[in-house]
Amino acid sequence: MQKKFILLQGRGNLCVGIIALLLLVATSSFAQNAIKGKVSAKDGESLVGVNVAIKGTTRGTNSDADGNYKLDVNSGATLVFSYIGYLTKEVVVGSQSTINVVLDVNDKTLNEIVVVGYGSQTKKEVTGAVQTITAKEIKDIPVSQITQKLQGQVAGVQINQTTGKPGQGMSVRIRGQLSVSAGSEPLYVVDGFPITGSIGAINPDEIEDISILKDASSTSLYGSRAANGVVLITTKRGKSGQTNVSFTSFVGIQKVPERGRIKMLNAEEFAQFKKEYYEDAGQAVPVEFQNPSQYRDKNNDWYGALLRTAPIQSYNLSLTSNKERVNTAVVAGYFQQDGVVLNNTYKRYSVRLNTDYSISDKVKIGFNLAPQYVFDNTPRTDGDRGTGILFNALHTWPIMPIYDANGDLTKFNQLPGSTGNIFAYPNWVRAANELVNETRNINVLTNAYLQYEPIKGLVLKSTFNAELLNSKFFFFNPSTATSAINVPIPTTAVSIRQSTDNLTWLNENLITYTKSVKDHNFEILGGFTNQRFRQESTRVQADTYADDRLPTIQGALNVNRGGTTNGVNEWALSSFLSRLTYNYKGKYLFTAAIRSDGSSRFGANNRWGTFPSASLGWLVSDEEFMKNFSKISFAKVRASYGVIGNNNIGNYTSYALVNNTVNGVFGNTVATGAVVTSLANPNLGWETTKQIDLGLDLGLINDRIQFVYDFYTKRTTNLLYSVQIAQEAGFTNFNDNIGEIKFWGHEFALTTRNTTGRLKWTTNANISFNRNKVVALADGIDRVYGTFHITQVGQPFGQFYGMQKIGLYKNAEDVKNSPIIPGRSAPGTIKFADLNGDGVITNGGDKDDRTIIGNPFPKFTYGITNNLQYGDWDFSIVGSGSQGNQLLVRHLYSTANLDGVFNLVEGVKYRWRSEANPGKGVFGTTVGGGNYTGIERDWMSSHFIQDASFFTIKNITLGYNINRPNKFFRSARVYASAQQVYVFTKYTGGPNPETSAQGDGNGDGGNLSQGIDLSNYPVPRTFTLGVNLNF
Amino acid sequence: MKKIIISAFLLSFGLASCKESFLTVVPETALSSATFFSKEADFVQAVNAAYVPLRAIYNDRHWILAEMHSDNTYYARNILFGAVDGTENVADFAIPTASGVTANDNVLQHYRLDYQIIARTNQVLALIDKVDFNADSKNNLKGQALYLRAFAYFQLVQLFGKVPMHLTPVATREEAASPLATTEQLYAQIEKDALEASKLLFNKSKQEAGRVTSGTAKTLLANLYLIQKKWSNAEAVAKDVVTNDGYKLMPDYNDAFTTTTGNKNNAESVFEVQYMEGSAGYNGNFIYRIVPTPITAAELQPITGTSNPQSLSGENNNIPTPDVIAAYEAGDKRKDISIGYVTLSQSLRDNKVYPYIKKFARAHSLHNNTGQNIPVYRYSEVLLFLAEALNEQGKTAEAAPYLNQVRTRAGLAATTATSQADMREAIFKERRVELAFENKRWFDLVRTGRAKAVITAYGAKVKANPQDYYFPKGAVPPPNAFTVLDDYYGLPAVESALTPHF
């Protein structure tokens, strides 16, 4: 030993350290006993992966596939056995070397803590409609956003991925809530702080659990922001007595499946179409189309050219520790998702540090700090013909070459006007590759609190929260590319820089007092809060660059005056809140809550709104008479009523504003001009929703079957609406609170533990039926038309509206004997139903034949998750679906334009060409020009509407768990996961039936016009391999 | 004690900021109307903005409803391009109209733009007397507002006959829709406003170039009186302009029209809508809306003179008809100034030569961005107003010199008309060519009661020889062409849905 030591001494301090460590290990091992044992359930079944920890240390292990564990323990130490679904058990180590443990099933998962607004309750006590999802349940889903992970998991919540853009495009609707023009997204509250930024940017690995508050009694403490529902997010904290270090990672590839892509004509088919077009019209065929077969091997799939197979990766390192007086959690993450569209990258670097410290038994302080940096470069993929390159690529003639003879990307393509080519197309691949459209966000969420408990049960708590966002947007369109049609190359290079700073702060001061007197249990909450948001932005637009390599502002020859602006947006909110929770013997439950909100957004005559709620619960299963029903292990009935609001009405909507940039010109001189642009409304207020919820929670056969049912009905009144007024007034709209919408629905959620032996199989299923009906609009207005929609009293919101297509005119006889559009109907043109029976088909006006032709809202949505565990293996499959909703296939306006101005969908091959060759009856004749084809193309009709019901296998994961600790880790898990595995749908309008753009992209926006498929960024299928290591 | 200190500390945080001023957050990046109209400069700006809708009216809409809806210009089919029904219907006299209402978008947009002028001027007129500032300046501002309001109603009454009338700003939702005023009520209000404006406004010599003047107001009055057949009133105001306001004809007809930067508000100009070339958004692009297509960049360049011509394909609006071309007498210098020809290699017609309106095609620098002004009233029209007013009162000989001033400049001999009837025809015909493509023709047909007869005859010619009217071989006008020959357009359907009054 002495000799060895000398030998090693020369190697320096590092070796000394190692030896010291070895000695330490050796020393400590002498004093320990090797304990082994088996962990099993009451029925003798061995439990796999049970966490066995030595209390007060970082050391521990997990039980193996046979339930056995082995650990070196000092005598007198305490072993803690914990396992999901079972009650945690502690055993003090004596002199024994074998400790077998039997864990009791925690069949009353009802003692789980549920985070609710401004506090927490046990699941048993909850009287509102609240659903909680823990991070564990959704940990393997390889996506960037927490809302993506929730798809299909929550009853009553429709979560759609409307675009495949990394980090974007999730639409979350709780209980079908809608507003005409105020937002419909729920309020997101992170560790008690209602955030103003995007929930999509938060690293899902930081999240411990999520509570979704659905009814008015659970949300009313959020008052004027609660009407769309509230999502409470709780981030990670250390678990009692444990220290955990873990590393999680997944890597994978993403690809847009061929199936589901829109089937377009290829180059040869397109040329053939054009050839037939001229032949059928009796015109000379332009030389370009005389020989379609020349394009046989020269197809240009412009849409496909924009797509690629792209990698995705995620790494997270976390430490949680809860010892003595300090509870700390740190999560550091890196996520990168390259988009499946060229030149699209999303990266997120994030850190979260949560610390709580108990200064004494009475005083506690805490800090959360979560900075993150997000980089995102996304080509302008989404949008219609004006803006979106994907939409444009679909349209581009496939005979136009992507590459020139030298193999270089073409600049732009235009054929002679004689071919009917009226749009010069840029090369979309260049547009994707060369345009810069990047955002860099630095976002910091931070909280600090001081909590004081002067006497037992009375807690005073002050919190300070701040959210900072610095967002830098940079757009550069070099002279060599463009994403607009009819712009020759070289074009004028343009840069846009926008810098936005947001600061939100919130101070909350709360008092809670908890007291039990005999069987009466009370909790009283009171508080007041102030929140303020301010956003400042600066935008600079410059153009005409001497050199594309230097897109600085000073490098531009021109700073665009109109595009150079700054903005300020601000709001303030003061609130008082109070809640009383009471129960008798834990089985008769009552909660009443109230919040009063004063908001700067409301008109001067209407500053404060009050939002009360009350709820009742009865634990029927705790009653004596229920003892006879042994199969019923748990039963609770719930009822609640409350009033909540939506204050997303814009910050300055109640003011009349003057725009002083409506300038006149006199001679060659510009003279400043000013215009009053809006009408003031000092009475403007929030939207009010009154909601009733009735619920039933049931547990059968020792809670192996758990069932939750809710019925809700709610009425939203005072909807913010920019009421169109006669423009003879000189204004287009008046911002007012009008109308009433009724919503109602049923939600069913079922959890079953199908098998509990060596093979454990659980199923979670949910289904939701949401309905709405417009009860009233403004006085004297019973309908509001959009470009494609109608919102009408007595009908559901925002229905598709237009002509009812019944086929094509078969021949001259048919035209003669049928109702027609005078001067425009001909053999082979589209035939609509003459609904008013006047013999003339009319679009609009007094003799309108339009009707409701579709509904963008589903009849029901559903989700089903199956988890299987067998030994060290586990398997899960998550599905999510929607039934009965329709989409407007917007691209058909161009891709079924029979004038052949754009490339066409494949179905046009089977159009009507003559009485003898009538095709499949879907697409009409090309003959006669716009007077005839324009009807099919331009008149909104059922021609464009498709059923978009779908069932998507969102995720399949196969995992293998190693629960035997070794020198590298304590436990490990490896898994393979596939995301967006398969979409079952009959929808052919595009690859993503979940999409629902609002508006036609031409200013007809908002919730009144949902369900439009603008051929957005497709959602890729992703295959990943992941590993989770615990140290 | 410690308990109390900590508790008080916690409580004090929130209460400190809990007051009403915390909740008053006013917009920082826009002015509020509550405080805006407080000084002279505010009214100057408000008046300036009242001119702005005229740019869109004249560049985008007025010519569709007032010129292409006549026998002067037509809509040439480009079957390579899908139809734009609304515009096509106007040229075809086939606007679907039911119960006095039409869904035609040109009608709607023109209507709305005129009411923007009216709302902006009402705002000025309601508030200007509540603020004290220099009387001359105030009068001149009031005069401009009154003129612009009168002119907007004048356009509306000519297009629609009856429209709602607003003379004060709308402040609430309930005030938005007004009952229809009769043609007579509208005429009376226009007369009142224009008369007052003519007294308040500066004369052209004193007025900033490009703004309306007392002469502009009097010309509007003359125009109104002619429509009302108040011949002596018309004579008086027109003569007032001729005698007192210092206008004169430009020696060359070509110079009566501005270039993209020059010749603006010249001696002949009574009022013209002002544009400015450049990227700031004050430009027009009229010629790009009316040049025949499909046209290649090379074919377009001689017409526009730009450095970056681009090919165009679209509808072919406002193409001079064979009828208007034939209306020019031999030797009329105005013919070649007003109308040019271009050969479109990509046209599907056998005859690939198309006429276009040359007097509004002036060289400019960049594609689709022109600065030339569009005339509203020129002095030559004042002369023709005067001649017409005189002749209608039987003062035919007195009328002739005014007509001849216009003819002489055009390189034509004096009129041979001596009878009242001949003189009436001579003036009518002179107006057609002198003011060709200046959006006068349809209103002339209506006010002289000739619309039905002239358009019926014109329609018959189009139907008989579609190819002369730019139809490709085999194509014909739609069956409902030349069936809607009413003097007035139907009111816009979209607005009809927003008012209980029509």
Automatic annotation (TrEMBL), chain A:
It holds the Pfam family CarbopepD_reg_2. Its main location: membrane. Residues 1-31 form the signal peptide. The keyword Signal applies. Residues 992-1013 are annotated as: Disordered. The keyword Transport applies. It is a multi-pass membrane protein. Keywords: Cell outer membrane, Membrane, Signal, Transmembrane, Transmembrane beta strand, Transport. Gene3D superfamilies: Carboxypeptidase-like, regulatory domain, TonB-dependent receptor, beta-barrel domain, TonB-dependent receptor, plug domain. It is found in: Cell outer membrane. Residues 123-230 form the TonB-dependent receptor plug domain. GO terms for cellular component: cell outer membrane. InterPro entries: Beta-barrel_TonB_sf (IPR036942), CarboxyPept-like_regulatory (IPR008969), Plug_dom (IPR012910), Plug_dom_sf (IPR037066), TonB-dep_OMP_SusC/RagA (IPR023996), TonB-dep_OMP_SusC/RagA_CS (IPR023997), TonB-dep_rcpt-like (IPR039426). Belongs to the TonB-dependent receptor family. This is TonB-linked SusC/RagA family outer membrane protein. It comes from Runella defluvii. The lineage of its organism: Bacteria, Pseudomonadati, Bacteroidota, Cytophagia, Cytophagales.
From TrEMBL, chain B:
It holds the Pfam family SusD_RagB. The keyword Membrane applies. SUPFAM superfamilies: TPR-like. InterPro entries: SusD-like_N, SusD_RagB_dom, TPR-like_helical_dom_sf. Residues 36-226 form the SusD-like N-terminal domain. It is found in: Cell outer membrane. This is RagB/SusD family nutrient uptake outer membrane protein.
